[in-house]
């Protein structure tokens, strides 16, 4: 009888090999070095045991999108050499909890959230890297600051205690051309770097469109399904 832990490790290892192959191929096609792109394994709905297996396989960055799941999972995996990314929408009353474990927050889209994160980070003696989530469509439910509001929000984040302006993040519009969306994000990133040259991160690309994102300058891809497979929702 197979050891279920061994079987799951083999599944994740196979997924990681294929995702790495895709990232390397996309980098080669774009004339970019593989080390220019960081893989963030999005572990939402997957148990802490999967995070431990990913870490053992050499993955150093993991992402979560719900604080009520992420906070206990981060505590369970506190001894692992991981950088934690929060990639979902954040209510301001969750800022303190998110800041307690997240090293990078991808979804800063309004000054009020930046203020809440700053208070929490300063109070905890932490420095949190913030990415500005940019809305590339007209769906307010997906979050994001409109492109015309990026500059003002960037100034607010850059001036906030405990926060570091890292760059931008976006999700390709549903049913749209991801290449066109990510090309627009690259333009927004270039404009941002005019005043904030240190804000070099472009978080773009998921399981279905990471190739397009890398072609347009993504430095960080957020991959869940292609890496970990389709699983039942994780319930604590």
TrEMBL record:
The modification N6-(pyridoxal phosphate)lysine is found at residue 44. Pfam families: Ala_racemase_N (PF01168). Gene3D superfamilies: Alanine racemase. It comes from the Bacteria. SUPFAM superfamilies: PLP-binding barrel. Residues 32-230 form the Alanine racemase N-terminal domain. Keywords: Pyridoxal phosphate. NCBIfam families: YggS family pyridoxal phosphate-dependent enzyme. HAMAP family: PLP_homeostasis. Pyridoxal 5'-phosphate (PLP)-binding protein, which is involved in PLP homeostasis. PANTHER family: PROLINE SYNTHETASE CO-TRANSCRIBED BACTERIAL HOMOLOG PROTEIN (PTHR10146), PYRIDOXAL PHOSPHATE HOMEOSTASIS PROTEIN (PTHR10146:SF14). Belongs to the pyridoxal phosphate-binding protein YggS/PROSC family. This is Pyridoxal phosphate homeostasis protein. It comes from Sphaerisporangium rhizosphaerae. The lineage of its organism: Bacteria, Bacillati, Actinomycetota, Actinomycetes, Streptosporangiales.
